[in-house]
Give the backbone structure.
Amino acid sequence: MPSIVSIEQVRKTYATGLTALHAVDLRIEEGEILALLGPNGAGKTTLISMTCGISSITSGRITVGGHDVARDFRAARRMIGLVPQELTIEIFEKVIDTVRFTRGLFGMPPDEDYIRRLLTRLSLWEKRDARIRELSGGMKRRVLIAKALAHQPRVLFLDEPTAGVDVDLRRDMWEMIDELRGDGTTVVLTTHYIEEAEAIADRIGVINRGRILLVEEKETLMRRMGRKQLTIELAEPLGAVPAELASYNLELGDEGRELVYAYDKAAERTGIASLLAGLTAAGIRISDLRTAQDTLEDIFVHLVRAEDREAEPEAADPEARAAEQAEVYP
């Protein structure tokens, strides 16, 4: 089955000469939730805006449902719902009118029952006749989501949808995303709340400096790159790691009261047994042991820092960030 979104060798270069995206390849499968993670200025919003036909493509090709976003813009855009970062919304309109208008804008026939169900799902039905300027910031965010879903798109892009919203809306939004997946809608989201991506996404994509570092099934990524860490609490503090234990790459912490050992839990031998034996042979007494596993955030930070260390000096973050923030959603 072909991917519902296909991004092939896509490049974005601005008039200043800044390249915001470098030959990006990405396939998004129908019905999945893909979380696209990256620091500010990494290219997330640029990639979304080009996929939605808002920003031009310097080179490469993007298709949505088989429709080229450049040559067949209307058909491609009709399949897409977009919730942007900014609250770009007409504040003098009534809630129900702006949602109806958006549905009609995409050529969809009136469907009052669908509009009612959509507004009810987003806790907006009681506010349907309120003007948007009368709503709280969280309610305005809900209206943006309603507008994005008004024409029943097959692909929903959520660009930092929970930035600056309250806990209740954040929880409601993730519940709604899970329902949309159940309906077969494809969801692509960017978020700074990496623990939420870890909880809800099927696949994780990491982008930095305009390059896709990886796209992988979440569970596979966690198994492949997630480390486990053994923290050994010592009965007496150490001034340094004993020379005979140097091969274990131990870190001394908590003013010498802890030794930290990182290991691969999938390895045939973790080295823990021999380490504990080595500690006993060195006369080091242990008071307690505890283990912890890397989170998705730990993996993300490791990937981005490693890529930053290898990046060319001229790939300046501030300029890339300014270019990305200049993208405007209509």
